[in-house]
Each structure stands twice: as structure tokens, then as C-alpha cells.
Amino acid sequence: MTTADHTRYLRRAWLLLAAFGLFRFFYSGTFLLTPDETNYWQWARHLDWGYHDQTPMIGWAIWLATEFMGHTERAVRLPSVVAVTVASFYLVAMAGRWLGAKAALQTALLSQSVLLFTVGGLLATADGIQAAGWAAASYHVARGYEEDSWSQWLLGGLWFGFGFLSKYTMGVFLPCAFVFGLLSPRHRSRLAGIKPYAGVLLGLLMFLPVIYWNARNDWNSLRHVAYLGGA
């Protein structure tokens, strides 16, 4: 593939994501909030370090959006619109870096046609917010394994913390990333250094407010999530 072809494929991928992001932004204000969305909107009106049924990031993000845009449907959904767009950009960045520019364009087309991305990018849900954290953490941790640079490991930890504040299931990311390093002869040596664990520590420190809230509220949220998980 020539340099011109590479650039053209990437430009088309970025433009496609930007176009879909703008479409979701404008369309998100054309229909009423669902019951779950009004629940998260109430979180934004009563800020706290945690809530009964989920981690608090979506409430914080909606509060920030409504501070600037007022209490409208579009403002309540803006965090999800932005988060799914960010997740899409990171998916394309991963494809472009490790699979090539043509794969990046195909990833852009595929991600924007998947129903889960469409719904997650239009409705105010914790899943849409977590998607940004998971995709970004995957990208930066992969680059951390590749380059072993402080910046990539810390960015991976930062996005892991963001995702963990968005939804409890982000906790699954840590063992997955660790097992990948253990099973990869090329990358196993990275786990002997301090950098990956500094990233983990950063992410866990970001999660401390949720632990604090649960400790003061009889571990209400953790028990609720455990119950939903079958405990």
C-alpha cells in the first residue's frame, strides 16, 4: 500500500467516525428520556461518590453536560455520545496501528453499523461510558507492552480507572491484561518492571471514592451488583 493510499483510508475512517458522532449528537435530542436515563439524570442532580445500582461516572458526566447545556435530553445523552465516539476512535487507532489503514476503515464501518454502538451512543447508559474506558485502556496497555514507556502504562491506568468508575465490570480488564502478558513470551518481561503496576495503582486510586461510599453505606452497591451476578 502506498503512503497516499494509507493516508486516504485513515482520513476516510476518521471522517466517518466524526460524521456519525455529529449525527448522534443532533439526533439524541429528538426523543424523550427512557426511565433508566431519568434515573441517571437524577444522579446528576444529587451528586455523590456512589449510588445503589452502579458506579458514579455517568452521573458526574451528566452533571457536567447539564451545567453547560441545561437540563435537556441532548445534554443528558451527551456523555454517551462522546464516550462511544471516543471508543470508536480508539478501535480505529488499534486497527490502524497493528492491522493497517484498510483495516482501520473497515473497523470504522463495522463499529458504526453495530446495534450496540448505535444504542450506546444515543442513550445515557453506563455501558456507553465504560466502552470508552475499555477501548482506550486496551490501546494504551497494548502500547505499554510494546514500548514499555511510562506514558503508555500511566495512560492505560488512567483509562482503566475511568472505566472502573463507569461500571464495575471494568474490573475484569485487569486479570485479562495480566494474563495476556503472562502468556506472551515477547511481552512477559514487562511484568517484571514497576511501570505496569504504577498504572494499575493509578486506576485503583481513582476508584477509592467508590470504596469509601460503599464502606459508609453498608456496601450497598457492591452487594447489589453481586446479587445481579448471582451471588
- Characterize the overall form: flat
The helix content, as a percent range, equals over 70%
- The tally of beta strands, per DSSP, is 0
Number of helices: 11
Radius of gyration: 19 Å
The chain-level structural class is: mainly alpha
Main beta sheet: strand number and arrangement? Answer: none
Compressed to H and E, one letter per element, the order equals HHHHHHHHHHH
Averaging pLDDT over every residue, what do you get? 95
Strand content: under 5%
Distance between the termini: 53 Å
Low-confidence stretches: none
Quick description:
The chain is 76% helix and 0% strand. With 231 residues, the chain is mainly α. The model has no long low-confidence stretch (mean pLDDT 95).
Protein architecture, described:
The protein has 231 residues and is mainly α. Helices cover 76% and strands 0% of the residues. It has helices at 3-27, 35-45, 57-69, 73-98, 101-113, 115-120, 126-147, 150-166, 173-183, 195-216, 220-228. Helix 7 (126-147) runs antiparallel to helix 8. The longest helix has 26 residues, at 73-98. It is flat and about 55 Å long. The relative contact order is 0.12. The mean pLDDT is 95.
